[in-house]
ABC transporter ATP-binding protein (Harenicola maris), 350 residues
Amino acid sequence: MTKVQLKGVRKDFGAFTAISQIDLDINSGELVALLGPSGCGKTTTLRMIAGLEVPTYGHILFDDDDVSEVPVQDRQVGMVFQRYALFPHMTVEKNVMFGLKVRGTPKAEIEERLEEILDVVQLQQFRHRFPAQLSGGQMQRVAIARTLITKPSVLMMDEPLANLDTKLRGEMRRFIRELQQRLGITTIFVTHDQIEAMELADRVAVIFDGKLAQYDAPDALYQRPNSVEIADFMGANNIFAAQISASGLATAAFGTLQLDRDIVTVREGAGRILLRSEAIDLLLEEPDGENVIEGTVEGREFFGATVNYTVTCGGEIITVNEQSRRLVEVGQKVWLRIEPRHIWAIRDDA
Ligand code: ATP
């Protein structure tokens, strides 16, 4: 198990700065997702950690040793890519053994590790097949096995599930998570899909425009984003301009909401408030108490298990997400209630 640190890392390609400054600590055995939109610098960051690129400035440490200039073959990292890059003329077991063979590992050891790894990735029954005879998920498991058999100290995955359909992606995510936890291998996973990042990772590093925008556990990132840009990227749909007072009141176009004390102390002034759509109660009768907003259901999107309502409130549209145990009609007058702890405030100058 290896701890990975990036200290003041920058990467220029000629006059273009791909990464302007990144500091990142990845604990031993942790799974960290690098998340961000296309072109933000995720792959470049991963390639520097792997040793495929050298940082222009800054340092990369593995267990406190500076490896910034150590080439990829001496770093003991394993890489899995979106394209599986399996050898088409080799069977599953030959593909998996390949890395050890070229290193000259003794035959007995290769065979022992092969059995172990085929069990781990559940590919025993496919060992004599060729890649063309496998499904996408099976091919990706071969690619993972081929990497794991070399016993890397850090596992890197660059959009490994991008070629798979939705259902298989879900299965492979659970497979990777379970495998990673069982082996306790430090893993860095690149994705542009926020759901994938939240589902898989212990911590998520959000990268925007070559900078680390936030580094947090999935729930913290989702519930307490540092900026409106991050909230938006994480899928927030209720972001409203508000004036936040020292006493903890947020005044928006649809009314005034009481905020949680802890939020207020640092958030006074002009800002935005974030109402998590799944934390809003949709009521058909006016309740007593504070943090109630009156509105009318304007639209309904049915997703099966859950349903989204768009509710017009004082000229703004608030989205409410709830279980579809009941269905409320469009045109219905409703009251929305949200507890202070489910409201997050961001200052405009944050
Ligand atoms: P994607 O999700 O599309 O793969 P990414 O976040 O992984 O994107 P990178 O591949 O790290 O992004 O690229 C970051 C920026 O650096 C991009 O603008 C890219 O064009 C640029 N870049 C990457 N590699 C090079 C290179 N070798 N030479 C010049 N520019 C590069």
Notes: The CA atoms of residues 137 and 274 lie 38 Å apart. The pocket of adenosine-5'-triphosphate is lined by residues 13, 16, 18, 36, 38-44, 192 (CB under 6 Å). The radius of gyration is 24 Å. Residues 237-347 form a domain with the OB fold (Dihydrolipoamide Acetyltransferase, E2P) fold (CATH 2.40.50.140).
